Every structure is written in structure tokens, then in C-alpha cells.
Amino acid sequence: xxxxxxxxxxxxxxxxxxxxxxxxxxxxxxxxxxxxxxxxxxxxxxxxxxxxxxxxxxxxxxxxxxxxxxxxxxxxxxxxxxxxxxxxxxxxxxxxxxxxxxxxxxxxxxxxxxxxxxxxxxxxxxxxxxxxxxxxxxxxxxxxxxxxxxxxxxxxxxxxxxxxxxxxxxxxxxxxxxxxxxxxxxxxxxxxxxxxxxxxxxxxxxxxxxxxxxxxxxxxxxxxxxxxxxxxxxxxxxxxxxxxxxxxxxxxxxxxxxxxxxxxxxxxxxxxxxxxxxxxxxxxxxxxxxxxxxxxxxxxxxxxxxxxxxxxxxxxxxxxxxxxxxxxxxxxxxxxxxxxxxxxxxxxxxxxxxxxxxxxxxxxxxxxxxxxxxxxxxxxxxxxxxxxxxxxxxxxxxxxxxxxxxxxxxxxxxxxxxxxxxxxxxxxxxxxxxxxxxxxxxxxxxxxxxxxxxxxxxxxxxxxxxxxxxxxxxxxxxxxxxxxxxxxxxxxxxxxxxxxxxxxxxxxxxxxxxxxxxxxxxxxxxxxxxxxxxxxxxxxxxxxxxxxxxxxxxxxxxxxxxxxxxxxxxxxxxxxxxxxxxxxxxxxxxxxxxxxxxxxxxxxxxxxxxxxxxxxxxxxxxxxxxxxxxxxxxxxxxxxxxxxxxxxxxxxxxxxxxxxxxxxxxxxxxxxxxxxxxxxxxxxxxxxxxxxxxxxxxxxx
Length: 701
Hints:
The chain is of the alpha+beta class.
């Protein structure tokens, strides 16, 4: 007989997320009030709500349930033959589930005792692929599509939109008739999940469809890359976090952190570009005309490498990035829009993966940042991790067993933790129940824990305190006190946590403002700036450098050239003299950070000066200019002063940060020469004192 089943799922990803536990290589379990007798031959045709076929197979009723007055009515269908499309679908859908290798249909928990019937005369079962640990066949690896960059540079025409490229969610906005409005996702939501997935058919999906397969295919679903973009693969930060992620962090072409999906490696700029492409297409559909220009926001505490990476992601998405804007500044624009305020505010931006705090002075349409700081590894993800660690401890207490879940099980825990965290913003307790979360010694275990708001506060108190430490440091950097702040503006999804409101009120002596939407303010502010670009009476932004930029010195020391909180744009020049006779090449390593030690700062690159005239030591001088624009993007130039000609220079980032820092630490022979620089003031284009602290910078004859 033929059996056509229309499933209540819109996509294959949704089917996998919600129903794959009922499928194995051997068959499928279907709940049904009307069942067929065991042994009945069936042609099975499973379809999505759209009518698209998802499974097509010949099968036999292997067992039934719920026919003896107890249990759930249903039947287990044992596959006999599968069409090629179904085989490919199951290879992806079941790849991360070792238990799915069973050659009989599954018996889901709670449906009752099965009534089995054997049928030896039926054709043999379809053979599943060999397990990953055998020598005959490796793990199933999906064929991933190649990334196709746009041809040529994006055209600078049409409307400009504002985009908040977030860790957890992204949001786009556009000013229509003088009023900023959020552009809704394809599913009608105000935000788009910042997730990219390679689905079981080898296609990329973005946003909500990608989130639908996060539980079942975490290895092929990329999330949270905002923390890693612009960082080297060998950096301690990347090495520390890579083992905590379900997907694979790989080495990129230039030594940067990248992602492996299927059989290809993608740069994090490409991952971000695919998310930006989705946002761009959403904007085009709603605005009704092509979109190729955008203002994109980044955390205020992003360094130069990270900002350059976001700008490159925009280009790969086919966008002309008109401006990179700091997220707290964008939120302040949304807060002050149309209000003609004159006050000093602090923007507290606690998002999914990063935290920023910025103090701004508002004077009508002038928004001046006077101090900023942050932590690019502090956000909602860390709150989720704290809950998951607690759940694992409770699991071991209740069962006496150490949790042994795979990537899918861990992702189910993270998903449950996030949902409980959100629920506890409105309730005092939340039950976390994850059924059949792991198998230990052939026994299935559930996780069932009730989490209270008080326990959540205890688990995450130190995280909230870290945000207040940053706020205090940002104030002290400019000699301010909490009494100097007239309003605290909360931004970011994690800022909804009631404990954040309580701590902010206690720290500043006043409750936070509720004048902006925590999820939408940054995108709306970006749209407002986008709308004002090119207008004579538009918004005026005065921003500051989030972290100092300087050079590495022998002994592993850091010498600041442009200080933190320097008003942007900023420019500073120095004279660099040769330290040896006939020296033709000099190297200068450049770092960004607030520590006196290069090992604690971010390596930006190495400036290589070549083609210098051969002159006696000290007679040749090169003017090095550090220039940072209003987006905090760095440009370094060099000019040889003897002949007035520009020196050939390249800004290379191919050295690993650790190799450069180790090289600096070993330059102890230059320590005495450079030590006199400690008391040397940073004066532009002054000969005295500058040569002393730069003469040991990797000078090569």
C-alpha cells in the first residue's frame, strides 16, 4: 500500500531539529491512530508542508505500539529500499548520531511496549555507511559550495542602510520619511540569528533555518564568530576557545582563524559576508530597490585587525561600507534622536558575545565620545556556559555518572540553558528538562533540573561584576565619577537580566534608562548615521581610539604612539634613524592594547622599510606617520627625509603574533640602548630622545 504523510515542518532543517530522534538508518517511527498490521508492505512518501519530498522508501511495518490499551498508537516502519535523494539526506541528517546506525526503526521513549514481528523473507535492509572509526571509510563529509565573491567593487548608489552585525543576532534598519525603522527577517522577526549552516543537501542556510539545525548538526552550524574574527589561528585566545565549539576552527590561508564546513575552509570574513548577504537581501525586498551601501557597527573595543575584517566582510557581501561605527555610539544616536539633549551618558552594551562601556556627551546633534572600554570575551554566551556547567554538576550528583554526551547532546544543553536564562528574566524559577540527553552503559538518561533566579544570580554574579569593573575603569580614565553620569543606557540582549538592572542601580545610584530597545537600538542608530551622511546639518560624531597603538621594543616592552581615548581622527609622526652603517632595511612591529607588555597586546603587523640609501649610522632618518581615521582604522606611512622620497613599505601580518612577541623578548642585547626611552616624552618629529627608543627595532644591515 502507499502511505503519503505530510509533516508539520516547513524545512528539512526543522524536520531534523524536531523529529530526527524518530529516524535511524533502519527505519522510522510514526505516531498514528490507525496502524497497519506488522508485515504490511508500504511505499512511504514523507513530505514537508510545502509539498517537497523528504523521504521516499519501500518499507515494512516492523512493530506497532499502543494496541493493548496502553502506550501511544503508532508503528515502526523498517526501510527496505531507499531512493538516492533519501540516502543523501539521511547521510547528513544522521551523521552526528551514533545511535542512529541501528538497522531497525527506533522506539522513542514513552510510546509503550512494541509488538514485534520478524519477516525473514523480506529483502535485506539498506546498509548504512561504515562507521567513522573503520579503515574502509572515513566519516561522511558534505560537499560544501565554493564562496563566490562579488565581481568588482560595489556600486556607491541607492539607499544606505544600518546593520548591527551581532554575535547572536543581526539587525538592519532604514530611515524612511525621516523615521528609522527595523527591517524584518523573512520569517517576520525583527532580528536575524547570526548563524550560518551547511544543510544536509550541501547548501548554505542563514538565520532561522540555520538555527533550526543547530541542535542536530552543530558541527555544520557556525555561531559566535564575532569573537574570533580578525584573530590569528595560533593566538592563545583562539586556541583556548576552539575546543569549546561544536564546529571546527581551522587555519586560514594567511594563518588567521577560519572555519571548516564540509570539505572546505572558509575565512571568518566569508562567514560574516554570507550573513550580511542575507541581511542585504532582506533589505532589498522590503525597501523595493537594490541596496549596495551600509553603515556597519562593531564593538567599541574591537582592534584594527577586527575592524578591517568587518569592512572586508561587507565588501564580500557586495556592500560598499560607508562607515564602521562603534555600537555604543550607535545606541547613543538612537537614544538622542530628535530629543536635542544636553547631557553626559554612559552606554552599557552587554550583547551575546561582547561588552562595551562608553561615556558620551550629547549636545543636540553632536555626539562626543570621551572615554570607552570593553571586553570582547564577555557576553550572553558566558552566562549560558555558566548554566551548562551547573547542569553537568547536577547531572553527576543525581545519577552518579559523568556526563558523556556528544556534540548534539551538548548543544541541546546549551539551548535549554539559554531558554531557561531568558525565562528567568520574567520568572523566579524554570524547569530544565532535556529528555534522553545521553547514553551511558546502554542506559538512557534524562536531565531534569529546576533553576531558580537566585541560583542564576549566584552562577553569574562575577560576570556582572566584571562589566561594572569596566564601567569604573572607563570613568577613571577621564577622571569622572558616577555622579558625573546623568543617564545609563542599556543595550544588548543580556542587559535584560534583572540582576544587571539591580547592579547598575546600586553602582550609579540611579536606575537605567528605558529609552531604547536593547535589541534594535544599535541598528537604528546606524541607520540614522547612514541617513545623515552627506547632509550639511547631519549628525556630528566625535569618537575616540578604544586602545593605544604603538610599537614593540626589545625586552618585550610596548611603547605607545597614539594613546587610548585619543580624539579621532588622529595623526602622529616620528623620526626613525638607522642604527648601523649602510643599513638598507628596518622592521617595526606594531601592536594595539593597553598593557606595557607586548605579550598582552594584539599584534597588528610588521612595517618593513626597504630600499634605504646606504649612509653612515644615524645620518639617514625616516619619518614614520601613524594615522587613525574616524573609524579607528590605522594607516602607517614612511618617508625618507634625506632625499624626500617615500620609502617602499609593506604592512605584513603573516608573522604569527607569538613568533613576533618571542622575538622581541629575546632582544635583551638592546635593552640598555632602549632603556633610556622610558622617560622620553612622545613628541612628534623631534630628534632628541626618539632615536634612543627606536634604534633597536629589528634593524638589519
